[in-house]
Structure formats: C-alpha cells, structure tokens
Specification:
Layout lengths: L2 H7 L5 E7 L3 H14 L4 E5 L3 E2 H4 L5 E2 L3 H13 L4 E4 L2 E2 L2 E2 L4 H10 L4 E5 L8 E2 L12 E9 L12 E2 L1 H8 L9 H9 L11 E7 L6 H11 L6 E6 L6 E7 L2
Parallel strand pairs: 1-8, 1-10, 2-5, 2-8, 4-5, 9-11, 10-12, 12-13
Antiparallel strand pairs: 3-7, 6-7, 13-14
Helix pairs in contact: 7-8
C-alpha cells in the first residue's frame, strides 16, 4: 500500500461526509472518490449547494427528485463498481442541490455507502467564512471536512482570495489589505461562525498548499488550532489534481 493510499484511506468509511470551506473542496471530493473505489468502498457524490456539471459528468449522475428512481440508478452504478451521483437537475453550467433530508434518506437506505457531500460554495477562492444560511449539512453527517488553503498565510486579505470577505474581516478583526498571519487564519478555523459553523460529527481540518508556505509558519498556525475539538489535521501539497497528503496530525 502506498503512502497516499494509506493517508486517504483514513478518510474513507461508510456514512455521510460533508465538505466545507474553500481552496480545494472539489479536489478532496474527487480524491475521496478515487481512493474509495480503489479500497472497494461504495461511494455516492452529491451537493447541498452547486457543482459545475463538467466536474461531475464523469460519474453519469442521476437527475431528479424521486428517491426511488435515484436509489435504482445509484445502486446500479455501485453494483458495477462505479461512483454513484445524484442531483436534482441542471441549471446552466451547474448541477442543482439535494436537500438534507434526501441525503439522509439515501444514507438510511445504504448505511454502508460513503456519501460525499459538497456542502459549501466558495467561488474558487482560497478562504471563506459562511453566511448564516450556510453550509447546509445533513443531520446524519458523521464527518465534516473543513478545507483551507495555506497559501492565505502571508497573502493579502482581499476579494481576489477571500469569499464573504466582510465576514472574514469581522472574525479576524482586521481590515481589507491586512497580511494574513497564522493566528488570523486560526481565528477563521476556530470561531463558532467560521469554517466549521453547523458542522456535525468529527471535524477534520484539511489544509492544501502545504508546499507553498514556509513550514515554520505552518507550524505556528497548527500550534493555534491543535488544542481544539478538531480530530485531525491533514496537510497536503497543491490543491487541484496534484493534491497529495504529506502529514497527518492526530489531535484527539
């Protein structure tokens, strides 16, 4: 077993896993599908927000609201060793969300599946804080993976990099243009209105961009978040197709 397989397999288990945050959620979703299938885990993908149709087309999704028809289509895919995917429809370039109950009901039917839910939108930015209406996380979620891009460390607090910047500024207590420090980023991770707002189950902090920032700066950030209710911290190079886990820090 390769190191990458071993690392990713620690995130692969039956139940609902919700992805929140910014700077690599869809990449983490794709990696969980890839390594889940290699491990023989039955996998279904969906969203409570939006995904581009082009991002999910490879999984031949079922579109519709009828759970019986969705169950039939998704089960057929799983029995063929494929990733199942279910969305309510397509609007322009994006697939449309399921509601939490639909996802919970599918999980009740197939408690041995891993159902991966993109539960938060960030408009491809590196960092975000959620509005009061987000993220939308199913009740039966067993793991919430919060994603942050470490490239924010040393970067400017601006709209180019940050989604919902006014909310992030409030949490950090800084003005636009400030350089993001480890303690400022930690505030977004730990604040009750921050990264893990409305999270359920165990909390996993997944940090992308590990190869782009001096490790002493990253270690400073970790020191600020390690003594919390986060279960584990994953540190990964890149944040797109090249994403590879380099370190795992077990916190609890």
């Amino acid at each position: 077993m390769t190191t990458q397989t071993h690392y990713w397999n620690r995130l692969i288990k039956p139940g609902i896993v919700a992805l929140v945050g910014a700077g690599g959620k869809t990449t983490v979703l794709s990696k969980l599908v890839e390594y889940g299938r290699l491990a023989g885990q039955s996998v279904m993908v969906t969203t409570t927000t939006h995904l581009y149709e082009s991002q999910v087309a490879q999984w031949n999704p079922f579109y519709g609201t009828d759970i019986n028809k969705a169950d039939e289509a998704c089960t057929a895919a799983v029995l063929k060793g494929q990733c199942a995917a279910w969305f309510t429809g397509v609007d322009g370039t994006k697939v449309q969300a399921l509601d939490s109950k639909q996802i919970d009901d599918m999980s009740k039917l197939h408690h041995k599946w891993q159902i991966i839910v993109e539960a938060d939108g960030a408009k491809e930015k590196w960092l975000k804080a959620p509005k009061t209406t987000e993220p939308v996380i199913p009740e039966l979620t067993q793991t919430t993976i919060g994603v942050v891009n470490l490239q924010m460390l040393g970067s400017s607090l601006d709209e180019e990099h940050v989604h919902n910047i006014e909310l992030v500024k409030d949490i950090m207590g800084r003005q636009e243009g400030a350089i993001v420090t480890p303690s400022m980023l930690a505030h977004v991770v730990l604040d009750k209105k921050g990264l893990f707002q409305y999270s359920k189950g165990r909390k996993i902090l997944f940090c992308t961009g590990y190869d782009t920032v001096q490790h002493r700066v990253i270690d400073d950030f970790i020191d600020h978040v390690v003594d919390s209710d986060i279960t584990a911290i994953y540190l990964a190079d890149g944040y797109k197709a090249s994403c590879e886990i380099r370190r795992i820090i077990q916190c609890r």
